[in-house]
Each structure stands twice: as structure tokens, then as C-alpha cells.
Amino acid sequence: MIEFKFLNEKIIEVGKKLLEWRENEFTVSSKSSKHDLVTSLDLKVQEFLYNSLTQRFPEIGFLGEESGMNKKPETKGYWVIDPIDGTVNFSKMLPMFCISAAYVENDEPKYGIIYAPVMNQIIVAEENKGVSLNGEKIKPNWAKKLDDAMISMGNIKGKTYKYFEALETKVMRIRLLGTAALQIAYVGTGNFDAFISVKGNSWDVAAGYIIVKESGGIITDYYGNPTSIFNKKNLYSNPYIHEDLMKAINTINKS
Predict the structure, then answer these.
(1) How far apart are CA 14 and CA 11, in angstroms?
(2) I need a labelling partner for 234 at 20 to 30 A (CA). Which of 91, 184, 202, 240 fits?
(3) pLDDT tens digit string along 194-214?
């Protein structure tokens, strides 16, 4: 679809601009709490994408993290944008952040792109067309057993330790990178075997959602039920470990 090509071009364009913009001074402020950060460049990236996408395709709705655009549009199709996922990392000049964008139709992602500009990684998935990394089709090489798996998860203060207690002896390693979108995408590329979303918003997960789905991964809620990008607690997993991971997670929910 021409819409997907256009989105791809604009994400890469603004990602390169972002690297230029951050060489100059940018401001950091708080939103819902003092640790819920937003930078002036989050707003600048989203404004660029909103203007570019809505001017070119006015019939497609827009859902973005910033500027009060975080309500689901009433249109059949809509963009879901996280202008900088990993804002805290970005504000500390760490390379683990990305721009995450998806096209969603009837609440189901049809196309997703995640661009990590410092690391020069472009991960793309389209419905029924698989996953590519920097233009090359990829097939994840996942662990077949939970104790060989490297998993990742989000962070939720006061509760993260419970996940470590339940999982650290059952898996090979647990990683927290500080960017849900990139961590989910890494399940689709095979860098991780699973991602545990503990408070994911639609803009955090939409692009990664289709990347995992197109890679052959499994996405459910914590109890194995069908889910969506609007559920905050999902498991994004390789198919070999999903059942065992789900059982381990449910020991936390029962405690």
C-alpha cells in the first residue's frame, strides 16, 4: 500500500532529523509524575508525523502519545504513533530508544515500523508478508525451552521484583532496556524470546504487535486469552515457551 511506503519514508526522515535536533539543546519536563518524562523533541517528532500523515491521508485517523492525541479515533483505519519510545533513555543520551508507528484497521495492526536511529535498525512487518530488519527478511532463531530463553519486560515500581523472583531461576536472562516498543520488536527478530508487558499503552505496542505476530510469535493476555493493543498486560512470546512462561507469570498473580 502506498500509505505504508509513505509512513516508512517519513519515519526514517524524522528519525534522521531527530539525531540532528538532539545535538542542540532540548527541554525535559514531566507529565503524570516527575519520572514520566517528555522532551521537546517528543513533541516535535509527533508534530512532524501528524502534519505529514494527516495532510497526505486526511481520511486516516491519528492516535499519538503526546499533545492530547491519545484517544482512539473513530475512523476505521488510523495511525498509532510513539514519537520517542524510551524517552528516559533518550534524555540520558542512551542509544536504546526508537520511533514506533503502526497502521491499524478495526483495532488490528496491519503494518508496523520501528526505527532505532542511533543503532540504525529499521524493523518492519506487514500483514501476511513477514518481518524485515534493514530491508532483509528474517526468521527468528528462538530458544525451544524456557530455561534457555532470554526474556525482557517493562518496569512497574513496587512490582518489578515480583517478576524477577518468579522468573530469574526459570530463564537464562532477564533484560530491561527501557523501551517497550523495541523490546517487543526484538521478540520478532529473535533477539529476545519474550516480552512481558506490565503497563503497555497502544502506542508502545502497536508496531511491535504485528512484528511479533508476523514472525510466528504468540500474543495473549497473562491467561492465554486473545488480546489487543489496548490491553496493558500482554505476553509477547515465542511459541515454544509461551505455555511455561504463562504458568510462571500466573504464580505472581496468585501470590
Answers:
(1) 5
(2) 91
(3) 999 999 999 999 999 999 999
